[in-house]
């Protein structure tokens, strides 16, 4: 056991990436990075981290920001509930806790948006608390090295892997060990086609010995994907302005902005789409309705595939609350709408 731990930490000290949140024990940037890197690769998350720490150098700055500013900076990172929870938690820390993060794993678990993994990461890295992290990387490394066939989607898996990781934690080195586990899973023991020939554990890894690298970790539960059909209506009034609305309902993209939406139960052809759009209550009679692209845009989320079309709806009138394009771009949009605006606005 200790051979594994010592070898892993030595590998980490030699191979670790130079990342800004690794140069501090301040819980604020550590927390920020951990929230951002949930469901996100480091290469994608790093520019967001740098923009956030520039805009909000302290937890007080983040707490004082408008939610729309936070969401705009987060735009494109996905899983927007993370950003809303981040903002809410910053307010609690700044205003209720005088800017001080809870100093223990159990205390950190009380914060909104902080689960067991994130609490363990912050507690061990910022405070040196001896609590193991267990995420996808850790499941993969431990299941392969020790040939553990427990289904990682099962209820029993978390406890089993937590206890296994805890048994490997070296005294006084929780920060290095936890970061080493995560880094090893991210760089070396990757999900597909890991370079086992150049791995420090190729003489002791049981999955390699038993030819099971490709089958571990075991994950049997499949996520059911729901298909939804979105038709976004880009209204162009006589002044060339357009209308947007805020998504206030709970669910995807909560509190982000979008164009008026017509959602259908299934894909509809051109004639049916035009008929349904014409029935929409605009407060004016559409002068012309046309599609803005030939093929539907498929936007894949973790549990949903969105089939999206954008339609131009012309109005021979001035529409109240319609905004010009430069004003529109200041609002936080889902990235699929933002990208469409950037690429196609000249066609509208």
TrEMBL record:
GO molecular function, one term: purine-specific mismatch base pair DNA N-glycosylase activity
EC number per UniProt: 3.2.2.31
SMART domains: ENDO3c (SM00478)
Domain of life from the UniProt record: Bacteria
Cofactor: [4Fe-4S] cluster
Keywords: 4Fe-4S, DNA damage, DNA repair, Glycosidase, Hydrolase, Iron, Iron-sulfur, Metal-binding
Ranges for domain HhH-GPD: 36-187
Catalytic activity: Hydrolyzes free adenine bases from 7,8-dihydro-8-oxoguanine:adenine mismatched double-stranded DNA, leaving an apurinic site
Transmembrane feature ranges: none
Biological-process GO terms, alphabetical: base-excision repair; mismatch repair
Keyword S-adenosyl-L-methionine listed: no
One Pfam short name: NUDIX_4
Keyword 4Fe-4S part of the UniProt annotation: yes
Top-level class of the enzyme under EC nomenclature: hydrolase
Family listed: Belongs to the Nth/MutY family.
Function summary: Adenine glycosylase active on G-A mispairs. MutY also corrects error-prone DNA synthesis past GO lesions which are due to the oxidatively damaged form of guanine: 7,8-dihydro-8-oxoguanine (8-oxo-dGTP).
Protein's name according to its UniProt entry: Adenine DNA glycosylase
